[in-house]
Structures are given as structure tokens and as C-alpha cells.
């Protein structure tokens, strides 16, 4: 009897205790130790004082991920080994997933879960740009005389990663949207394969000529595209000076409070021109990534990022699938400027109180910003070389001679250099707002609503999302 | 039940109780329930109440309640086209999904019930999808349904249903995306539901079938008059769990369609995820959560009301 | 004689039809295995093929087994699914024992509270649960992934039903012989409920093995990811080619398929011997 009682008590104690034991034993083992701040790190040594592991979250896929991994491995086995810095590259899902994780961590204030470096696109940066954990690159530049010369960097890309006049992140995987086309199909349609459409109106005639139907069904679409922020970030601002999608300079001077493009007529003008293209009936207007369809011959032309260049060259041009043509994104009309917007992502440093990790991160970033590494990145992906000096390197010059398609990237960069404010916006709920705009334009494209309704729906819905944010968070 | 009485009897026989013993006896039933209760409170009720509070407040992006707003979020959310769309999509999905998720495995159970040549093999084959996880299933179907190199389109083309190159882009087509997802979900859940139903069908007493045979009943008559009524508790169980699964559907949407095209696969839980989590609008996301909960609750209530009429317990 | 032959022929036709149906249902699985053997060119080729060119192409499998974290993902998932299943069973049976055999103040309320969790899906309370787990310092830990799954209302309900089949006179007699609650629990209740335990363990194992969203959120380190999350993250390592993902799927499937192929009939028998009955 007594034994039984003891047993009963024992079991209940064990059961409740096990809950706590369970908690204790699984405490993250290598949590960031918040050591006393290395006293004079700010002005003194710019290298970590002890061997350190730098966690780097990224969202790259495919051949680009391979190139990134190669770069990190090279750093770890050269500079990293010398300085005791190991970069730990972790894929954390696509931009959206990775940023969602980051916001969850910040909301829970779980500083020791933060990465040391994170690649973030416009989708995630809004929520963290004022976080207490973000460590602006500007601070490093200010204390490290031999660090990165900001004048060497691609000015547009640098602008992309600036907030309120301060360099927040290091531009890294920045690209512009451009036009790729199938020269063989151009020839078959009786078009000059070396002349691409330059305005939306011209684009319409090309789409019409290139679309191939068999019966009612379309065999080849003239164009595969989706009007998302990446494209609007060029098509809206190119209509004049100081034209933005949102107020507060697309969120670079403060939280946007309202849509600008619905009020100043830029969206209306763009859609008017765009409807001419849609009227051909040869646009597949709902494909985020038309690359595969382009390769298989479903699309004669597509809008895609410059960062698709490497894979298009290797999978289509070099395999002889067909002859690829490249051009700048067509202008809205003949009065548009020649600038193309910039999108993509930058690298941001998070500081959870460990100076060594922070300095390790900085050292790795300096490595990335060297002309040689930037050049490799450019050649193997199609992203802009973050350090413009890369284009002067002999190996890069030879490479471009061998792969003349890459010239278009330099042309776009050159034509855009006077327009550094053509950027993807930084807004709250980026993906929701982007999706809303896309969906409304798709409804217009299907013909299920007219232009005026489209614009007023966009205006109403997007402003409601912005208002939600402002009501809860203030300006 | 005479448990307390039996305890008392036992106590009398065993002799006098000490005070400590009495306390243990009194606590015992609670001690047995306590562990599960701790977890139920910590990970269901506490977050539920917190979600409820969020839904009645303005919440900033740090997750702090800024002010109490009453039912404003609830009144507001029903004027949001995206949310109303999510309700519509969820209901449509549930409607497409639940009947298939019950009828198909039940049919398979009827087929597998008869012992025949190969029956061991095909019984195993019917149950096999259970071994495949959601994300793996999604990838397999993504490949099968691929617009160009997918076997489904190829097969349709070979048999002559679609003889041109612009085949259906199953997962990226406004009309087909949601039905495609429901077929994938049915496949994911078919194995387990099949086994539950097979077990139930096997439990139908042979005497009943034999006496029906003597009366000269046809096969389908036996199914409707005997098998379905007798297995109705299991069918009901499957129906309820699949209904909740349908209302809570999100993983295939997240992995395969991201709610697209044009929100045609954006379910309520996906809305909770995008609005509440991805965009940091906790108030609205929590409101959507609570509405989803209420919807599931109402549906289940209906089920249980109907249960009394339709389900036969022996 | 003739009718017999017809019946036999009919039966064979039915068998063949059933087998064909079975093959159709299991086809996606088979296809995944076949894709694991394909090289990139075969994988992307048109017209699509079911079979690989060559069954000796093991690069994908080698890559997954030796160059990726997939084996680790499987261990993680296995550990999580097994532990959650065991904890669930134990917690549910304890609670069910109390509800089946004791009368105490607040019994109905407590029962309702526990059954009520069925109505609160984990998906709907993601955000606050994330914060709780984070505040406990359990992000990126097994316990952090598992803790939200320990309560299973359905199990409590079913075990209560199962225990109620044990007559109270049996329990009284056992207690007269000096048997205590725990002894009675382990020596009588558990063996009596074996069939229910089999069915519910399986259900629970599969449910936990399949969870996606929660493990995705609470794991930031690759070595802590579960299979479900892990394979969606594999896309990054594999040059945008999906064939290795299918090799991973095939490898992940192998153990569960073996368990099913051999254990499936026992499982059905387990369920049949009386769990989901009213």
C-alpha cells in the first residue's frame, strides 16, 4: 500500500518534472554569448578577436545558389582561414519565407536566433529597416578606412540599399528587368532579329506578329510576363521626373502613406499603353517566371531579370536551342526616359551583441565587394557587379567578348545611371500589395474589368493595407 | 459507475485512512489529468485567448496591443474582398474535397473487403499513399501536372483530349488549380481513410450479410441497407476529420500555388498566414483565425446535430 | 459447371480491375522512384517518360545520401514523430483513465476543456505559440517542435471509450487483491486497449510526420529541420534540377513503405478490433 502511494506520487512528480527537464535539456547549445563588448572595437581592430562563425541566410536557388556557395567556400578556405572566420551559408527559403522567419524572430525578440548576415529583398526590408538589431553598413564604412569605397559601387544598387541617406545594406544581388526574345521566331515572323521593340506600342505590333495560333488555341504567345512591382518600378518612374508608385519617394524617405501612381496619372497612362499590347491577344499575362516557357518555345519574348542571363546563355544559347536576342525593357512611350529600375536584394548585418561575429560579417562583405569576386558573381549570374571596377578586369572583358549577350546589362546600367531613384518600393506588406496590384491588372487583362475600375480597386485596396499598418504602428 | 463507492469499500476493508492518504486519494484523478491539461492550456487555450484578444485590438508589428477596438476588426474583415474570397475558396475546396475524401476510400474499402486473387497486393497498394508526406506528394504531383513535361497532359494528348501545345497549366489555371489541389489532398489522405473504413467494413457481422443473401438481396442493396448503416460511426468520423482538414487546408497552397492564380487557391488559413504572419498584420490575421475557427465549429455542430439522425451506434 | 466458370471469370476480371486500380493509386509513388534514377536530360525530356534510361544511374541517390542533410532530416522527423506519439499516448491514456474510472468535482468541465482543443487547430494559433516557444528558449529544438502536438483530444476520447469496456467489478476485484491504480493501468488497461493503441499510434505518427508549417517556422538551422521542411529547402542545392529531389523523396519513402507493406494488414486488424466504434 505504501509502495503504491509512493509510486503514484513519484509518477506524477516525474511527469510534471519531465516537462521542465525537457525544456532545460534542449536549450540551444551554441546560443550567441553576449560577451562584454570588445572595448574599443569601434575605433580599434576591425577583425574579430577570436575565431568566429558567421551565419549567412540567403534565398538564392539553382545555378545562382551554386555560385554563392562556391564564393563562400573560397572565402572560408582563403581569407576566412587566415582570419579565423567561417561563413555558414544557410538557405532559408524564398525571400518571402525567409523574411517571415526574420519578422517572427524580431517579434519574439529572440536575438540569439538572428543570422549575422541576411540577404533580403524589398519584401523583407521594410519591417526591419528600423530594427534595433540591424547594423548599418554605413557604420562599418565610417570606421574602416580600408573597407569599401562606396564610389566604386554601382550607384543605383547602392541607392537601393540606402534609407534616409544612410547606407543600410550592401548591394549584392541587384538586377533589372529586361526583354529576352527568340531570334528564330523573329525571322519566321518576318521581323528583323536585331531590332527589338522599344515602346509598348511597338511591343504590341511585335506581339501580334509573333503570336501563332492553331485554331482557337495559342501555340506560341508573343509575350510571357506578369506586371509586378519589379516592372512597375521601371514603367512608372520613367514617365517623368520624381514619379513614384508610393509617396515618401517609394518609402525611401519614410513609411508610405498612400499610392501616388493612381493619382498622378502614371498608372493610367501605363495601362492605356499596356492595353494596346493586351489587345493583340498574344500575351500570357500571368507568369511570374516565364523562363521555362521561353526555353520551350511557348513564348517568343519574355520579360525577365538580368540575373536570368547566365542560365539562358547556358541552357538556350550555348546548347543551340535557338538564337537568343536581348534588349532593354520597352519604354512606356516615346517620351519616357531611358532609365530602367533596379530590384533584387542586399545584404544586411544583424548585431545581437557579439562584436566578433559582426566584424567577421564585415570582413566577408569586404571580400564580396572586391572587383574579382564581384566580377565572378556578374559573369556567373547576370546580377550587376556590385563593384563597378569589375568590368575593367581583363577576365571580365574577355568573358563579355565571348558572351556578347551580356553587353545589354552594361547598356542598361549605363542608361540608368542618371536615374538612381527608379527602385522597387519599400512598403509594409510588400507581397500582399504586390499581389493585389498584379491581380487587379490580370483582371483587366482578362477583360473582366475596365481600366478605371482597375485603378480605383488598386487605389482602394492598397491604401486600405497601408492604413491598417499606419493605424497600428503610427508613421 | 460506482468507482467512488468501490474506493470507499476498499478503504473500509483496508482499514483506517491517514489524512495524507486522503489527500492523495482526492488528488489522484486530477494528477492523472494534469499533464495533458498543462499542454492543453499552454498551447491551445492560452494562444487561443491571445488570438481572441488580438482580434479585438489594434496590434503593432512588435505584437504589442496598442488599443482595444471592440468588434471593429470583425466588422472590417467582411468588407475585405481578399478575405471574402478566402472564405469562398475554402468552402469551395471543402465542397470539392470532402465528398471525394469519404466516397473514394469507402469504395476502395468495399473493393478490398472481398478476398480474392491479388487482394493482398491491391489492399496494400490502396493504403500506400499514406506513407507519403504532404510536401513529397506536392512535388510528385507538381511534376505529373507540369504543363509541358507532365505525364497527365501527355496522356490526355495521346488519347486525344487536347491536341495542341497550350495544354492546361493545372496548378496555374484559375479554373483548374483548386480542383487539382483537392485531388492532391484526396490522394494524400486516401490511405488512412481507406484503412479506417476497411476495418469498419470488415467488422460488419457475417450473419447479417448471410441473412441478406438468403433474402436474395443484390450487392448494392446490401451495401446501402447493411454496410453503410453499420459502418456509419466510422464514416461519420472520417467525414468530420476530413471536413476540418478541408477547412484548415494550407500546405498544398503554400507549396504549390502560393494562393494563386489571382487568389483562386487562397484559403482562409493561407490568409491567416499571409496577413498575420508574413505581413505582420496580427490583428487582422487573428481575426481571420477566429472566423476560421467559428466556421469549423459551426460545421461540426451541424454534423453532430445530424449525427443523431443518420449515425447508428450498436 | 458453366455458371461456375462464368463466376470464376467474373472474379478474375474483378481482381485484375482492382489490381489496376491499385497500381493507378500507387502510381505517383512508383513514378517518384523512377524519377530518382533519371539524369537531368531524361527528367526534362519531352515526351515525358515513366522509366529512366538506366537503372544504374545512382548519382541522385548518392548526392542525397552523402552530400545532403536528408539522412539527418529523416532522423529528426523519426525522433519527433516517435516521441510525440509516445507522449501523446501516455498523456491521453492517463487522462482517459481518470475520466473513465473516477468521479470527481469538475470532471465534466475538465473533459470538455480537453475535448475542446480539437476545435482549436494549431494552424490558427501559430503566432502566439511561436512567441511562447521563443520565450521558453525552445526555437530550433526538438521540444520546441514537439510541444504543440502533445495534446490529442481524439485519443482521450477513444481511450476513455476503450477503458469503459473494462468492467468496474474487474477493477474492484483487482483493488481488493492489493492492486493500485498504476499497476491496474499498466497491467490491465494497456493490454486491453492494444488495438486502439496500434491504430492511434499509427494515426499520430503519420499526422506528426506530415506537419509542415509549424516545423518550418520554428527551425532556422538546417540540422534541425524535419523531412517535410527539408525537402522543400533542397531546391536550393540542386542547380534548379528536380531529379535529386525525387531521389530524396524515394529515400524518405522507403522506410515508411516497408512498414506499410508488411504491417498494413495488422494495422487494419488493429483498427477493426474496436476503436472507432461508438
Could you characterize the architecture of this molecule?
Chain B: Keywords: Cell membrane, Membrane, Transmembrane, Transmembrane helix, Transport. Chain B: It is a multi-pass membrane protein. Chain B: It holds the Pfam family BPD_transp_1. The complex is a heterotrimer of chains A (475), B (314) and C (278). Chain A is α/β, with parallel strands linked by helices. Chain A has two domains: 172 residues, Periplasmic binding protein-like II (D-Maltodextrin-Binding Protein, domain 2, 3-Layer(aba) Sandwich); 219 residues, Periplasmic binding protein-like II (D-Maltodextrin-Binding Protein, domain 2). Helices cover 47% and strands 15% of the residues of chain A. In chain A, β9 and β10 form a beta hairpin. Chain A is globular and about 70 Å long. The termini of chain A are far apart. Chain B is an all-alpha fold and 314 residues long. Chain B has two domains: 55 residues, no CATH class; 232 residues, Orthogonal Bundle (MetI-like fold), CATH 1.10.3720.10. In chain B, 72% of the residues lie in helices and 2% in strands. Chain B is built from 13 helices and two strands; from the N terminus they run ααββααααααααααα. Chain B has a two-stranded antiparallel sheet. In chain B, β1 and β2 form a beta hairpin. The longest helix of chain B has 37 residues. The N terminus of chain B is likely disordered. Chain C has a domain of 168 residues: MetI-like (MetI-like fold, Orthogonal Bundle). Chain C is built from 14 helices and no strands. In chain C, α4 crosses α11 and α11 packs antiparallel against α14. The mean pLDDT of chain C is 83.
